[in-house]
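Late entry, evening session. Most of the bench is empty. Finally got around to the prediction I had been postponing all week. Sequence below, unchanged from the version circulated by S.P.
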Amino acid sequence: MKRFFEVAAADERHYPAEIDPRIEHVKQIADHLGPLDGRVIADLGCGKGRFARVYQERFPAVRLVSVDIAEAMVTSAPGARCCATLTALPFRTAAFDGAYATESLEHAVDVELAVSEVCRIVKPGGHIAIIDKNREHWGRFETPDWEQWFGREQMERLLRRHCRDVASNLISYWEDVPPDGLFVIWKAVR
């Protein structure tokens, strides 16, 4: 998988370095995490840092840590950078004020362990946002054999093992376009 993403880093069409800052994903994460200035936030499975770049521009005093499995991906991400897997995050427990993972848990080899790690690194009271694809839409796109999508209840159950105030809802890319069920955001408070 690491090799796949090292090569994929050159594919700007499917793995872009920039994202339109107006998309609903950006808004939903920012709304859930709250004011970011002065806080330490982990972007888990950051790719080239497209979300972190938007948050860094909006909140210049945020301290971002961009984490990805592929060095070729993370080298262009803003903030501190780290190569690691979601199942073995090299950070102390409760090191972050918040964390988000956008379409990255679908690549974890052990989702239960990855969710546990995401929760472990966030302080009690810290916020976690996960956006990924809805299992009910599996087959809608051609995907690698190792990729997995999640049911809303499945991810809520995993988050509740470590967090309180867990909720999820369907989201769209654009505010004025109703969700078609493909994307889910899970929000939790540690």
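Two things to note before I forget:
Helices lie at 2-8, 24-33, 50-58, 71-74, 111-120, 152-160.
The first strand starts at residue 40 and ends at 44.
Will write this up properly tomorrow.
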